[in-house]
Amino acid sequence: MAELRSIIQKTIDVFVENNTLAVKQKDVTLLSSVLAEHCSRMYRPLSFIQQYPHFFKSRITNAEYEAQMKGELLTMQDVSQHVTRTVIDTTQRAANVWIEKTVHTTASSSTVEVVCDLSFTEDGTQITQVVEFVDTSESIKVLEQILSTMS
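The structure corresponding to this sequence follows.
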């Protein structure tokens, strides 16, 4: 199990790092590089998702996420991420990753707390599901800035 834990940790590290690199390189494909082909992504809490139904679906595919992020990446100048906590369950092939994410747009910078609940393939090399819990107060500010820049 120690080897599996190490593999899952490496997958998490690449997942987090590629979210930063995607912004820097404006390359949406990096966002899905360690995601399984049929990975689904969900945002929570639902109240936040329901506040922006034109922007969020309750569940999206890799392709839908990449399409959504294509426009967002253009508004972002940089992003930095600090993982503050990681809990890995090798038996369930799951992990929780707590991240403080600072997003720098053309208008300002905001720090958002995010908790990613991740599920993995049997071998731990790919993520099969991402459930992202967001700090709604700060996320609303960032999202409004991004949407105003995209308009």
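Strands lie at 35-44, 76-89, 94-105, 109-120, 127-134.
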